[in-house]
Design goal:
901 residues; mainly alpha; 38 helices
């Protein structure tokens, strides 16, 4: 047994430390099968772990992950397999990869695989297993149409349809849109069906107040059909039951109500039929009455074919019809009965009426034979004779029945028109003279009221001439007015001559007083002068010449102060005329140059001249109209061109207004607002649209602007509300994660927590808090890693100081081509520790070497240097360090410094 152990390889030695030492000496290439055997079969966890780490082969890690019974090795193998798969998708076969995913992979690894995996089936399986909405959303956003279609069911499950609709492509987008539409329909249908059912029930209930049977019956049937067509399955069971119960109750009540209305309707129909029969009977009776009336008229007109017996037979027939049961009592029947009674009486008195007609015929013949007057002297006698015969005829016609009277009245009117047409010329001449006399009488009365008697005397002479030309019949109409005026003027003639001398003195004194007074207002002085002259002229020609001369001298003296004022007014008038003539010349010049100008420039200059014309000094009406006509002629067709320009501008603004109104129905109110701002800029670039349209268009455009901006403000408020709610939810989520940070124990917990925090899609206000939380998690991780590193260093120091076996983590190969002395120097330099004075030159050289290596991108950590030193120093079979004692002491100092830091 002892002999066997002497020749047994050290990697098969019973002691773990010996096997570990031997494992460290094995070559990865030449001794791969030995290391593999140790990794798979060695009973020591430390040996298997060291062997796996030494080979670092993914196949061995995968085998250990599946078969090794030690949890720590399984965890380490799982981690290594995950790193390999993440580094290279082909590190494992598809079958092994799927098995690893299904049984061994952690969620964090699965998430990273889901993002990196190229095979669609595996990617879908990973996402389905993880079932995390943020991850599915991230993959979906970067996926092509085919993968999006495969993710469709998962998107539905995680309720991401609306969120991912905008990034979906092709058929996937259409399917998501269909799902959203269906979801909206499912959300809307219960509300719509409930509203429709409520409306139908309300209409049914309203029918109970209707009294029209046909309306109630027809609408009741329609509403029943509409109710049967309702998709009540959209309603919940309770509401559906309530709706059906209400419908049943209303239907029963409406059926009862309809039955009652039907009875009343049938009775009403019967009454209408009876009324129709009565109307028909009454119409027949009326027709018979008209027949009797027409026959009577023909008989009175001398038609011998109308026999008396026939008339009596018709009367008897009418009396029989009056007894008909179809006739209903009423005002129409009563009126018809009265008419028939009158006709019956006429038939009975037929003989007496015929005698009256004969006498009337002779009188009408006498009237028709009247001769029209040829001269004024014959007019009065002709008018008197016509009036006498006319009165007799009218009295005789009035005594006849109305049908007969109408016939004879027509003949009389024809005869009278004939007489009037023959005498019309003479009568019109007399009427014109009469009207002229009345007008002169009114003028005379007005002149008398004004005190202008002298003029009134002259007008009265003309009235007297006209009055004498009138026939007595026409003189009678104005004789009272004529005689009154003659009497008034006769009395005034004597008094006027007396009063004229006193008035002459008053006017002369007033003119002198005005001449001696101060002139404060030239226009008022001119008006006073005119009034005095007018009053003086009313005195007539009897005024003495001396008085006339005195009055003229006084009036001239009174007007003298006004002359300078009116001369100045004339000068201003001439200036105003010159100003307007200059504007006319400018407008003419503009018209000549209008073809060379752009329409905007033409409109600007044209409106400027119009504005100057309106602002120019005013002139008297006649002169202004003359100049204004010239100004208008100078405008030519420029006004039309400007008007067309305004119309084009109005059309352009109307088009912008229409586009703005269409924006009111746009779903995206913010896009509509942006478009509206562009329309506002275009509006400002369009010129004036004319006084009649500019204000109206602007007010309409402004109303649309106000409406859309109000919608935008409401949408903003809604967004702010949604943002606040989202923020509140995210604050709650952050607070929960912050609590998890306080409770996290392991690095895995902290790493998972960090991933969860980083994956949060937070509003901008919370992103700082999110970063702060990530920083706190990182700090916690760093603290744990630092503590672990410190423990790791303490374990190494304790082993070196006590001469015990080193921890297996420090027993790895190193490829650093440095001596142990160089490594110790570099550790002292890195930790700012002093080296022995005898090694100062070597220390300086190592500093130079470190700087040069760093310049070339090569820099070793303290852990790497410590591992390299342990490897250079070597360990015995028990794993105890065999390095130089002085170097170990210096390493202990380095470790003390690293631990204290």
């Amino acid at each position: 047994m002892i002999f066997k152990q002497l020749f047994q390889p050290k990697w098969k030695h019973p002691k773990e430390t010996t096997r570990l030492g031997a494992l460290a000496q094995l070559d990865k290439q030449q001794d791969a099968h030995i290391i593999t055997a140790l990794a798979c079969e060695d009973p020591s966890v430390n040996v298997r772990t060291a062997a796996l780490k030494k080979l670092n082969d993914v196949a061995l890690w995968w085998q250990a992950c599946q078969q090794d019974g030690e949890p720590s090795i399984k965890r380490l193998a799982n981690q290594k397999v995950a790193e390999a798969i993440l580094a290279s998708p082909n590190a494992l076969s598809d079958a092994d990869k799927e098995r690893y995913i299904e049984r061994f992979a952690a969620d964090k690894t699965l998430e990273q695989l889901a993002l990196q995996e190229k095979t669609a089936a595996i990617k879908i399986k990973l996402l389905t297993r993880l079932n995390k909405a943020p991850l599915v959303e991230q993959v979906f956003r970067s996926a092509d149409e085919t993968l999006q279609l495969q993710l469709f069911e998962l998107v539905l499950k995680l309720q991401l349809t609306e969120k991912l609709l905008k990034v979906a492509k092709g058929e996937a987008k259409q399917k998501l849109q269909d799902v959203i539409d269906e979801q909206q329909r499912q959300a809307q249908m219960p509300v719509e069906v409930a509203e429709q059912a409520k409306l139908i029930l309300a209409k049914l209930n309203a029918l109970r107040d209707k009294t029209d049977y046909q309306l109630v019956s027809g609408q009741f049937s329609q509403l029943q059909k509409q109710y049967q067509q309702l998709e009540l399955e959209w309603l919940d069971e309770e509401l559906r039951g309530q709706t059906q119960q209400k419908f049943t109750q209303l239907a029963a009540k409406l059926t009862s109500h309809s039955d009652k209305l039907k009875v009343a309707f049938e009775q009403q129909q019967e009454q209408q039929l009876a009324k129709q029969r009565s109307v028909l009977a009454l119409a027949n009776l009326s027709a018979l009455a008209e027949e009797i009336s027409n026959a009577m008229a023909l008989r009175f007109d001398g038609n011998e074919q109308i026999q008396t017996d026939w008339l009596h037979a018709k009367v008897a027939q009418a009396k029989d019809m009056l007894q008909s049961e179809d006739l209903q009592a009423g005002t129409e029947l009563q009126s018809q009965q009265q008419e028939l009674v009158r006709l019956f009486k006429q038939v009975e008195q037929l003989a007496a009426y015929e005698q009256d007609v004969d006498a009337l015929r002779e009188q009408l013949a006498s009237y028709s034979s009247l001769r029209a007057p040829d001269e004024v002297s014959e007019l009065d006698a002709a008018i008197s004779a016509e009036a006498e015969l006319r009165a007799q005829l009218q009295q005789a016609i009035k005594a006849l029945p109305k049908e007969l009277a109408a016939l004879w009245q027509q003949q009389f009117s024809h005869a009278r028109k004939h007489w009037q047409s023959q005498s019309d010329a003479l009568m019109q001449e007399q009427k014109q003279l009469q009207n002229a006399a009345r007008k002169k009488a009114r003028d005379i009365r007005r002149l008398i009221n004004q005190g202008r008697y002298r003029v009134a005397f002259g007008v009265f002479n003309g009235l007297q001439e006209i009055f004498e030309q009138l026939a007595e019949h026409f003189q009678n109409d104005i004789s009272r007015e004529y005689e009154g005026l003659a009497q008034t003027l006769s009395e005034a003639k004597d008094w006027h001559q007396y009063a004229g001398e006193a008035q002459q003195e008053q006017l002369l004194e007033a003119a002198k007083a005005l001449a001696n007074g101060d002139c404060d207002d030239a226009n008022e002085r001119l008006a006073q002068v005119k009034r005095l002259r007018k009053s003086w002229q009313l005195l007539g020609p009897e005024v003495a010449q001396q008085a006339k001369d005195e009055f003229e001298q006084a009036i001239e003296a009174a007007f003298a102060p006004c002359r300078d004022y009116f001369a100045e007014q004339q000068k201003l008038k001439e200036q105003a005329i010159a100003e307007r003539e200059q504007l006319i010349a400018q407008m003419t010049s503009l018209g000549e140059r209008s073809g060379e100008l752009e329409i905007r420039e033409l409109e600007h200059q044209f409106n400027a001249l119009l504005k100057q014309w309106r602002a120019a000094k005013q002139l008297e009406s006649k002169l202004y109209h003359k100049l204004n006509k010239a100004f208008s002629n100078a405008q030519g067709n420029m006004g039309e061109r400007v008007a067309n320009f305004y119309q084009d501008n109005a059309n352009a603004k109307a088009a912008l207004l229409q586009r703005a109104e269409e924006l009111q129905s746009q779903d995206d109110v913010f896009a509509a607002t942006q478009t509206l701002k562009e329309l506002q800029q275009q509006w400002q670039q369009i010129g004036f649209a004319g006084n009649s349209k500019e204000r109206k268009l602007w007010q309409a455009f402004r109303r649309v602007n106000d409406s859309i901006f109000s919608q935008r403000d409401a949408a903003k408020a809604q967004q702010h509300q949604a943002h606040a709610e989202q923020k509140a939810e995210q604050v709650s989520a952050l607070e929960a994660l912050e609590q998890q940070l306080a409770q996290a124990q392991s690095n895995a917990d902290l790493q998972q927590l960090r991933n969860d925090v980083q994956q949060l899609q937070l509003v901008r206000e919370l992103q700082g808090r999110q970063k702060n939380l990530v920083a706190r998690i990182e700090a916690a991780l760093n603290a744990k890693e630092q503590a672990q590193q410190t423990r790791h260093l303490q374990e190494l120091r304790a082993s070196l100081a006590q001469g015990q076996a080193l921890p297996t983590d420090w027993l790895n190969d190193s490829r650093l081509e440095l001596s142990s002395e160089q490594i110790v120097l570099r550790l002292e330099i890195a930790n700012n520790l002093a080296s022995p004075e005898s090694l100062s030159a070597q220390r300086m050289q190592e500093q130079v070497n470190m700087l040069d290596a760093k310049h070339h991108g090569v820099e070793y950590s303290t852990d790497e240097l410590l591992l390299a030193w342990v490897a250079k120093a070597g360990v015995d079979e028990q794993g105890i360090c065999q390095g130089d004692a002085q170097e170990r002491e210096r390493i202990l100092v380095v470790l003390d410094k690293m631990v204290s830091v």
